[in-house]
Amino acid sequence: MYRFLLSRQWVILTLVAVLLIPTMIKLGFWQMHRYEERTARNDLVARALEASPAPVESLTAPGKKITTRERYRTVTAKGRFDTDREVVVRRRTDSDDNIGYHVLTPFVLNDGKVLLVNRGWIPADGPSQTAFPKVPEPPRGELTLTGRLMPDETTEASGIKDLEGLPDRQIMLINSEQQAERLDARVLGGYVVLKTPEPKGDTPEPIGKPGNENAALNFAYAIQWWLFAAAVPVGWWFLVRREKRDREAAEDVEPAQPEPVTV
Fold first, then answer.
1. Is the N-terminal amide bond of 55 cis, ω within 30° of 0?
2. How far is residue 63's CA from residue 246's CA, in Å, rounded to a whole number?
3. Model pTM greater than 0.90?
4. Pair 136, 199: CB distance under 8 Å
5. Cβ contacts of 90 within 8 Å, gap of 6 or more
6. Which of 147, 169, 171, 199 is most buried by its number of CB atoms within 10 A?
7. CA–CA distance, 211 with 141 (Å, rounded to integer)
8. pLDDT at position 227, please?
9. Minimum mean pLDDT range among 30-44, 79-93, 120-134, 142-156
10. What is the C-alpha to C-alpha distance for residues 214 and 223, in angstroms, rounded to an integer?
11. How would you class 257 by CB atoms within 10 Å of its CB: exposed for 0-12, middle for 13-18, buried for 19 or more?
12. Residues 6+ away with beta carbon under 8 Å from 57
């Protein structure tokens, strides 16, 4: 009754179905793992953003690497901006994906250490591609700032190549070790994305809070793959039953009688 399953066509179809089921189940577990990772990351970011502000030197120091638990923590620092040694970070985008620069300004603390502060985004014009652009000045004198603590940028983590031979006072990555060499100073590990004081006229454009990763999409993909895995044997059995019915119907049909030939 089911001898047709031994045919070449059905053997191949069955093998494909057998291979698809564990593959789809594995893909479902992979998506569920991604869901758990993203959910945990979102929770970690939310806790960091909600935490009370802490003095910057309680979380970082010269040469220290910022951990994932310290990332996005709100920190405070007291000192003054050093605009004479300010640089801009190339190929950065604003909220509308326009390409420009991030403004990186050293902030000299009262104890002489230096905190790198990303003050926000400015647009790039023609001359600024080869010359230092016009940058709005920060508040002068001693002040207290708040910002979100961030780890040093690296090519491995960001995918941005650290190019050489750039125009004066332009860089590709925000890296405290590199800036410590340039400034010949004790630079705190990582950098801070400025929150307050807010810039006049919203320029440089403030950098927004990190958004949540869409973990729910990975959960939906996991369920989808598992449904596909369940549908494969159902679909295979449906095809088998249809093939059996078609063959039985063909056997029940009487062969047509040839018409008599008249001479």
1. no
2. 76
3. no
4. yes
5. 101, 166, 170, 171, 172
6. 147
7. 33
8. 95
9. 120-134
10. 15
11. exposed
12. 77, 109, 111, 113, 188
Q: Which two tokens stand for residue 64?
A: 């220290």
**66-96 b/e (C-beta count within 10 Å ≥ 16 → b):** beeebbbbbbbbebbbbeebbbbbbebebee
202-243 per-position pLDDT tens digit: 899 999 888 777 888 999 999 999 999 999 999 989 888 888
* 203/12 Cα distance (integer angstroms): 64
Q: Are 52 and 146 in contact (CB under 8 A)?
A: no
Q: pLDDT per residue over 130-162, tens digit each? A: 888 899 999 999 999 999 999 999 999 889 998
Q: What's residue 259's pLDDT?
A: 61
Q: What are the backbone angles phi and psi of residue 117, rounded to the nearest 5°?
A: -120, 120
What gap in Å lies between CA 30 and CA 34, rounded to an integer?
A: 6
Using the structure block, give the residue that is written with the tokens 């502000």.
53
Cβ count within 10 A of residue 37 = 13
Distance CA 150, CA 102 (A): 14
Collect all residues with Cβ–Cβ distance below 8 Å to 164 and sequence separation of at least 6: none
> Tokens at residue 120, please?
């926000």
Q: Give the pair of three-digit tokens for residue 223.
A: 């369920």
Residue type for position 173: L
47 Cβ contact list (under 8 Å, min separation 6): none
Q: Which residues pair with 149 in a beta bridge?
A: 192
